[in-house]
Amino acid sequence: SKTQVGFIGLGNMGNPMAKNLMKHGYPVIASDVFPESCKELRELGAQILDSPADVADKADRIVTMLPSSPNVIDVYTGPNGILKRVKKGSLLIDSSTIDPAVSKEMAVAAEKRGAVFMDAPVSGGVGAATSGKLTFMVGGPEEEFNAAKELLSCMGANVVYCGQVGTGQAAKICNNMLLAIGMIGTAETMNLGIRLGLDPKLLAKILNMSSGRCWSSDTYNPVPGVMEGVPSANNYQGGFGTTLMAKDLGLAQNTATNTKTPVPLGSLAHQIYRMMCARGYASKDFSSVFQFLREEEGQ
Ligand code: NAD
Fold this sequence. Notes:
Elements: E1 5-8, H1 14-23, E2 28-31, H2 35-43, E3 47-48, H3 52-58, E4 61-64, H4 69-77, H5 82-85, E5 91-94, H6 100-112, E6 116-119, E7 122-123, H7 126-131, E8 134-139, H8 145-152, E9 156-163, H9 167-195, H10 200-208, H11 215-218, H12 242-258, H13 264-278, H14 289-296
Parallel strand pairs: 1-2, 1-4, 2-3, 4-5, 5-6, 8-9
Antiparallel strand pairs: 7-8
Helix pairs in contact: 4-6, 9-12, 9-13, 9-14, 12-13
The chain binds nicotinamide-adenine-dinucleotide.
């Protein structure tokens, strides 16, 4: 029978991911600072413990899915953190999207305790997490990749090895910077077309058979009424929050600064998402930039 797997962070993503581990027969031992997050997993038979340290006491494979860098630092190196009681030889996999420099720090700290830390951020939203179709971008020692893949393939359709620790985050940050730029570009283009008298559905159809086509135009169109089953069809609820996108663009800016890389459109996208957070869009899906641009133009 399969040995237990620890899971820390049972939010929008962690909750369905942990459920998929259970579906594949892994007993899950979980923890989250927010008791309400643990409810569903407990009902499904997962053991819920008080702290990451308690989880590390019992499981030698642990997956973490937390909002941002400070939470990851706390969960690994804090007073009740995993590394306080980690077993030698443990495999620690962090799927949060965070600063790659923090992933590297966590790997060094884990190594001092005889454990292996890998970064494995994901692409694909709550839908992909639920259906087990996430893409994992994995960084860390290559000889540990297969052990990580055994668990990650229960939660994802693609598990891609990227290189040393932190490179999974690098891939994720690059993807999300392009995603944000593409979304803003799609939103402003659709808005211009509408102002020029085009029907938004027709314009989307033309873009999607032309060279302007992108994921934001054909799979996640930001204009209400163009597509069904996307956040724009549901008042921008659910999906990928503007706050999280602003965080990822901030990470892109940090890494660009550190490597002296010009990213002018990434920088502008960051500022646009920061403005949205300050103006009431924080908890809406990031495709609400379409609505934001309409307001800016004084509808
Ligand atoms: P979330 O805020 O819904 O969930 C995070 C969970 O972590 C919460 O339940 C919170 O209580 C818990 N937590 C925070 N600090 C903790 C601590 N110290 N100890 C234990 N638990 C703690 O976030 P999410 O949407 O699940 O996203 C998680 C990560 O995945 C983020 O880095 C995000 O950028 C990334 N991501 C999200 C999506 C998406 O569509 N939501 C897609 C891809 C990647």
